UniProtKB/TrEMBL annotation, chains A, B:
InterPro entries: Homeodomain-like_sf, HTH-type_TetR-like_transc_reg, HTH_TetR, Repressor_TetR_C, Tet_transcr_reg_TetR-rel_C_sf. PROSITE patterns: HTH_TETR_2. PANTHER family: HTH-TYPE TRANSCRIPTIONAL REGULATOR RUTR, TRANSCRIPTIONAL REGULATORY PROTEIN. SUPFAM superfamilies: Homeodomain-like, Tetracyclin repressor-like, C-terminal domain. Residues 55-74 bind DNA. Pfam families: TetR_C_1, TetR_N. Keywords: DNA-binding, Transcription, Transcription regulation. It comes from Streptomyces sodiiphilus. The keyword Transcription applies. The keyword Transcription regulation applies. Residues 32-92 form the HTH tetR-type domain. This is TetR/AcrR family transcriptional regulator.
DNA sequence: GATAACTGTGTACGGCGTACAGTTAAGTCT
DNA sequence: AGACTTAACTGTACGCCGTACACAGTTATC
């Protein structure tokens, strides 16, 4: 479902897990499991059946092991979720970036969107705090580099980065929830816009929503939802225009 | 925790609930409960103890009634969550808006942020699809009105609205997860920036994150997090600048 | 008064995260 | 070589969760 995650957690331990900075134990049996295996199985489950399928029991089952043995490698499910995020986050591929701040940020945003499309369950996992893992930091680093090149000072760059990553996540979340709403109600995705339009017309056509009705009648909902790419690029452009207003005119 | 909500749901029924369009039954005992009472109790619980405290059992307990009796009023928990969102969403107060598109959207965004601060659990509930309830539509209507006045056509207005509401949600979510991370790790919120900085310095100072380290050393994380309002206004300005680039020069 | 519609109860099921107490296997030390 | 320590993994159990289902009590209509 949804919810906060109030459990107390040891920050140092979490960090050690994220950076794989746990020195291997000197005694005891060589374990058949490993942190990577546990996380990888959890990711596999999430990819195939959604985040709802990721339970300690099912992860253990997938590894041929009892539930409680997982707790030798992970302090609890919340940490497992964080580790899953870090694992699928990967690193941005900057090799083909054009080198202008705007072009770089466009690539950054598209690559991040691509990741979210590959693993939609990433949007179901509430981020538990500021990024701490190596790969998450690598994404920050890449964007901050481009923004520094654009001439923004560090403070502004951080603020702007939050806006951009927030935009990418929001847009992906929007696409995802539309797709799920369509799926859940048994409507084909291409038809959802039409259904939504009809619903608004029935429910809301009492004169209290004139602009909304005009938008509906103009087809803004009917036509748009089938092409997420165009919507994304449009919003990306708007967002980058806002950032451009903060960039000193000298820079690219 | 977190997760998708795959349950099949009857769209017509959900709509009837959101709009309170259920005609009262003609026979049977007058119920002691009502949809509003159920939703209100769930909201009360969420406000006081967080979304994690909202279970069918506890809502029923709070109403002095058995768990299953709730299902006479709500098809399931997912619908209850949607109804909670609709209830606390309320309507935007447009009475003191300046009338320029930019001023109006600023008020819109601040009011929405205010709502999210009053009920942080709103950010824990995954929106299940496009807005359908009367109050949610009222928020759309208000923003679309201002954007129409700015001269944007309906398509662009919808796209821009998604960006703006996405920004407000993202920023609020960021604040919330920072606050929770601080709380969870037992660090005072004002000190979290300092702790985070120290952590990055220890974990990431291997030369692979030069720009990130520069941002850290410059205090972009240390100083900023204590003043969410300033961060919000900064990002709002950036976002609106992006929108301004889409507004025909004639208008406001 | 019979009937049908409706409200609320009680029990039960399968799932969840995880605390806790074993049991077995591998190093370390005398 | 044997004792000791540590770690890996098992098994059971507890208290939550959402909700399916059968039932009892109440009310308006025929």
């Amino acid at each position: 479902m949804a919810g906060e995650r109030p459990a107390q957690r040891d920050l140092q331990h979490t960090l050690r897990l994220l950076w794989r900075a746990q020195e291997p134990p000197r005694r005891g049996p060589r374990g058949s499991l490993s942190l990577d295996k546990v996380v990888a199985e959890a990711v596999r489950l999430a990819d195939e059946e959604g985040i709802g399928a990721v339970s300690m029991r099912r992860v253990a089952e997938g590894l041929g092991v009892t539930t409680m043995s997982l707790y030798r490698y992970v302090p609890g499910k919340d940490d497992l979720l964080d580790l899953m995020l870090e694992m699928v986050t990967g690193r941005p591929d900057t090799s083909a970036w054009p080198g202008t701040w705007r072009g770089d940020l466009e690539c950054w945003a598209r690559q991040m969107r691509h990741r979210l499309h590959e693993h939609p369950w990433m949007l179901d996992v509430h981020i538990s705090g500021p990024p701490l893992g190596p790969d998450n930091l690598a994404w920050m680093e890449a964007a901050l580099g481009s923004l520094a090149e654009a001439g923004l000072d560090a403070r502004d760059a951080v603020g702007v980065l939050m806006i951009l990553s927030g935009y990418v996540r929001s847009q992906a979340l929007l696409e995802l929830s539309l797709a799920r709403a369509a799926h859940r109600t048994g409507v084909r995705p291409e038809e959802w816009g039409r259904v939504y339009t009809g619903m608004l017309r029935n429910a809301a056509d009492d004169g209290r929503y004139p602009h909304l009705m005009r938008a509906v009648e103009s087809g803004a909902f009917t036509d748009g939802d089938e092409d997420g790419d165009a919507d994304f690029e449009y919003g990306l452009c708007v967002t980058l225009d806002g950032i451009a207003a903060r960039v000193p005119p000298a820079a690219g």
